[in-house]
Amino acid sequence: MSEANAGSLASRPWHVAVGSLAAGLALAQGEATLGIAAAAAVLGCLAWLRAPGLAVVAAGLLLVGSVVGDARLRALDHASTRIGGGRTISARTQLLTHARPSAFGASAEARLTTGSLAGARVLLRFADRGAGPPLPHGIAIGAELAVAGRLRRPVTAPDAGFDFAAHLRRRGIAEELLVDHIRATGRRRGGIAGALDRMRARAETAVAAGLSGSEAALALGMVLGEDEQIDSITRDDWRDSGLSHLLAVSGQNVMLLMALALPLLVAAGLGPRGRGAALLGLVAIYVPLAGAGPSLQRAGVMGAAGIAAMTLSRPSSRWYALLLAAAVTLTLNPRACSDAGWQLSFVAVAGILVAGRPLAARLRRIAEELSGAPSRPSQSGSPPAKRSPLGCAAADALCEGIAITVAATLATAPLLAHHFGSVPLAGLPANLLALPAVAPAMWLGMVKAALGLAAPLVPASGQLAEALGVLTRVPIGYLDALAERCATLPGGRVELPLSSAPAVAAAYAAMTALAYGPRLVRRMRACRGMAAAWRARFARAGALELAAAWRRRSRAFRAGAGALAGIVLILGGSAVLATPAAPDALTVRFLDIGQGDATLIQDGAGAAVLFDGGPPEARVYRQLRAAGVHGLDVVVATHQSRDHQGGLHEVIDRIPTSLLLENSDGTTDRDFRHLIGEAEAHGIRHVPARAGQVLQVGRLRLEILSPAPLPRDAPTPEDPNPRGVAAIVSAGVFDLWLSADAESDAILPLPLRPVEAMKVSHHGSADPGLPEVLEVLRPRVAAIEVGAQNTYGHPTPETLAALHAVVPHVYRTDRDGTVTLTVRDGHMSVATED
Questions:
Q1: pLDDT tens for residues 75-118?
Q2: CA 364, 366, 369 angle in degrees (round to 5)?
Q3: Number of domains into which the chain is organized
Q4: At a CB cut-off of 8 Å and minimum separation 6, what does 674 contact?
Q5: Residue 24 domain boundaries
Q6: Are residues 73 and 181 in the same domain?
Q7: How far from 727 is each of 472, 521, 554, 611, 661, CA to CA, in Å?
Q8: Tens digit of pLDDT for each residue in 677-697?
Q9: Residues 6+ apart with CB under 8 A from 338
Q10: How far apart, in whole angstroms, are the C-alpha atoms of residue 453 and residue 448?
Q11: Closest CA to 722 of 697, 704, 739
């Protein structure tokens, strides 16, 4: 390394010092020999750079950081070391987070406040498997709870892709408490934490005001980092589209908060020091209010450093602020550096510092050339042409937003591949399309939160927050629709497993070579001969000529071309967001949703009926939208079974539905009862399915053949399959037989008749009476809805043999994908995906 580099390091002693301290804190988790080796490396490197004094200081700070980090870890683990797995305890706790529902029961973080384990953090695990958290109604963060249960060490399965135990350990949680009993005592924590709890509760209420449940959940995630209420389906959409970072408060939130507050402070007449103090106060309130996660801690420190530099009229070093943020966050928790969110946050900022600023400057130059009004004086010495301040601000903001998005997306790609095994290719276009809506959504949410905080002083704050909710729906709804569409783009996510640290380092090395390699090659070629120089000069002359030709065009022409380009972009975005049109002919889709049932019938005139929704992980809602479904006239829940009703929660939550025809049949299954409760909450009429019902839906006629009503006081059937809904759906001369999981013993007593098509019962399971059923139905098309490589052996060889002996065309979704049957002008055609 050259003396210039050494001088550059020597001229930034604070950078070296803070960076060494942060490195020592990060090394606190490793072995002592690793810290000594790193210190020796720093000492040798800086000594070679002829900065021995700085080398000694850096090595010392690295060791100090390692010692401090080790002490901090011991302090964090002190309470946890007293916990013994398998103990049964009864204690009081303070709730630290909202309860998060999941497929394995709800959970919430809490701190024990009584007994020998006082001060230890635990993860409360509830036995409830329902959809909602089983906490007493109205319990908020900071509430005191009396709990009893058994302690358990968190365990990560050997084949799990996520080390859950390590994740809890980074948060200071060493044990899970399996809760048997829980009771709210009515008390809350006090002091500063209690004041923040009350402020947070008011802010949450205000942010959610005027929004639906799903919209409020997204707004709370974007503004306050509270994503517990976001359902797993929406969370997956935002992750697969590369927009999940918007649901975790970060530096973007702090930046937008300052951008929102600064003009107001200037308008209020505050001087530089007053504005700096006010901004520092806002950051100091917002960071703990929004949870003070690692990425937000980093943003808060960097924001505070920038505010201080602005207030004191001193140039701030963004790299120094980033290193300082690393040192502060690692002092609070040295384990944070192994957290994926912490790593992604810092790498994103580093990418913005390295590539974002140059890219933004280049984009601004391009915008100036295209506008024909450069901001700098021309070579002839004439003053620059006047530009509209509003236009300049809009162009600069757009260039800055595009540059930051591109730089952060590219910088985090290798880490995303390392932690999650794939990279969302849709992330870049999705984030660019999201730019116009992010700031309005954040600002409106922040204003609503501020109204909530001011509620004790402003009596009408609740009404104002409610009114702003109508405006907030627009950007929130746009972002949610964008996430949903981009998550399902073909090729939107590519599998790229970078399982080791060397692989990640190699990826970043390759990116660096791609970024800077061409520049080095061009310089080498220029040194070898004049030809390359002449080609470069010619290329530059051509670019200048094009720019000059553009500027010679009239202002009206340039404005029209710009408007045309904008229209093309809007139309392109609309094409991405638009739902496909519904088919104009009778269409039956036997949907490929794995091991489960989901059959969609569209009459060709706008009416649509769905029989079952498959398991929840199949995401049947996406397939419905891709099929042009804007609303459902009837949804049929044929019987209680996860692989039939599981996906219907998503359907009735996201697609307007007129009627739920449900066959609860006396079941006490929580999930099925919750489905009916969701229908009631959405204002969807629901009626029991019973034999003899006939429904006319557009051009479709639904004839329900079973089940018959249960006798009074009859027990709930142990096996719901035989009493599943069996129906014939007709349109003109076309008849479709659907029988859920009911097999021949339940089907043969029904008034059957010949049909054109059928769905094979129970995924093609063994059914000795199937030949007799087929003899009556005599279908031309039979479809088996079955999952690939399922553990049940479906479809069985006997069933396949019976079908092929009678039915001309047999399809199965595990091999053919979604099977689409279309009836047009009396002719039937079938298309498959595979």
A1: 777 766 666 666 788 889 998 888 877 655 678 888 888 877 88
A2: 110
A3: 3
A4: 130, 131, 649
A5: 3-77
A6: no
A7: 44, 71, 68, 10, 12
A8: 999 988 999 999 999 999 999
A9: 29, 166, 170
A10: 9
A11: 739
